[in-house]
Structures are given as C-alpha cells and as structure tokens.
Amino acid sequence: MLRLLNLELQKLLLNRTSKILIFISFILPFFVILLSSLKINVFGFFTLELGELGVFNFPIIWHLTTFFASQFKFFFAIVVVSMIGNEYSNKTIKQNLIDGLSKKEFILSKFYTIVFFSLVSTVLITLISFCIGMYYSSYTEATIVVRETEFLLAYFVKLIGFFSLCLFFGMLVKRSAFALAFLFILYILEWILFGLITWQFNASIAEKIQNFFPLKSMYKLIDQPFQRVAMTKFPDKGELAYDYGAHSYEIIIVLCWTALFIFLSYRLLKKRDL
C-alpha cells in the first residue's frame, strides 16, 4: 500500500498544477477560522459576532465546520480527475503497466491517494474545530466535547465517496473537463428522476428513494446546520425540528457507492485496450 501511495504522491508533487490545487484544498478549511471571527456591522447600531452567538459551542461545532469544509471538496476533485487525465494524455498509464504495475494496483494507487488526502483533510478540520470550540464554547467537559464527533467520520466518508465518483468519471471519459461535466449531468439526472418519481407516486416516497442516489446520499451525510442553529435560538418553534444526525445507514450507503465506483473503474481499465 505504501509503495503504491508513494508512487502516486510523486506523480502529483511533480505536477505544478496538482501541487497548487492540493495546497488550496488544504488551506481552504482554515477559512472556517475566519468565519468564527467574522463581525457583522448591522446598520451601525450594533456589531454581530458569530463566535459570541453560541454557534461554535460543542457539540454543534462538529456539525457546522464539517458542513462548511465539505463545500471545498471540488478543488481536490479537480486533482482526482487530473490524475487520470494526465495518465492518458502523457501515456504514463501504459508505461506503468509495462514497468510491471498491474491494472489492479494502478486503481488501488489512486484509491489510496484519495483515502490519504481525505484522512489529512479530516485531521485538519478536527484540529481546527477543536481549537475554535475550546476558544468559544461555553461547554468544555470531555463528554460534551466528544459528542457528535461522528460528523468527522461522515466527513471522511463523504470525501472518499465523492472523490471515488470523480475517479470513475475520470476513467470513463479520460478527460478532466468532461469528467467534471459528468458530475453536473449526474446532479441534473438525479433531480429529473426525483421529479419523475414524485409525479408517479408522491414527494415522500420520492425523497426516500432520492436518498439512495449517489450525490444525494453523500450530501445527506452532513445536512445543513442552519436550521439547527435556528432551533437553538427559537426552541419553541416546533416546525424548525428536523433530523440532522449523521446516521450509520447513511454512511453504509455511501460506502457501497464508493466500492461500486472503484470496482467499475477497475473493470473499465481491465477491459480497455491501452
């Protein structure tokens, strides 16, 4: 595993564009710190400071930071599809196979890289969230601090699932730009299917089925936290209540999609004449 990971990292670090995109991918989560220190002047009457509103209290901070950090995943998605595009355009994929790398090892090297960067990103957001929480939170008891850290696992799985999808599209079309376009096509198709199911049955059934779609299932791992923040400020508003938790069955759905994308990527490579 380490040999394959090291091989892939060498390729990425030798590419100037990949190095820049990886750097940006790891820097962007730190913008959550800026969010915590953001001060909003409300028409000159008073200053609203997010950090003082309790939104960075434990355990809600794990939900808030992982949601915002996951919005930056598109930058490393470009790196993932570029890994495949560059292999085909530079003919390195054929050279690697000639040099003794099996097709299975080739796909695994990409997957190990995805897992590695997802893990690094998760560790970073964990440290950032912990530091912000310890500074702003009114609750620093160990039992409260570690509560809802399942959002970190959901964040990790979400990154792996999304990047595995990008890997599959990269293998499918061999071009970075087209692979990214397929993401938007898939997004549109999911909503078209949702509309058709709603028309055929009803919105409730359609929503339950939609939660099994690739992109939607990844999104559902970490639901938006805004409604939850509103619930803490207006506890008497029952209509604000919703299920915001990171559930094990949602993680399993995304892991199944991840396994399928990696398997399909391998099958494409295995059947393709290089």
Question: Can you walk through the features of this model?
Answer:
- This protein has 14 helices and two strands.
- With 274 residues, it is an all-alpha fold.
- The chain has one domain.
- The protein has a two-stranded antiparallel sheet.
- The protein is globular and about 65 Å long.
Keywords:
274 residues, two-stranded antiparallel sheet, single chain, mainly alpha, 14 helices, 2 strands
Short description:
The chain crosses the membrane at residues 20-40, 60-84, 111-136, 151-173, 180-201, 251-269. The chain is mainly α.
Cα(first) to Cα(last) distance is 24 Å
Strand share of the residues? under 5%
What string gives the helices and strands in order? HHHEEHHHHHHHHHHH
Tell me the total number of β-strands. 2
Residue windows where pLDDT falls under 50 for at least 5 positions: none
Q: Assign an overall shape.
A: globular
| Whole-number mean pLDDT | 84
Helix vs. strand class: mainly alpha
Strand order of the largest sheet: 1-2
Number of distinct helices: 14
- Radius of gyration from the CA trace? 21 Å
| Count of the domains | 1
Give the helix level as a range of percent. Answer: over 70%
Taking the sheet with the most strands, its summary is: 2 strands, antiparallel
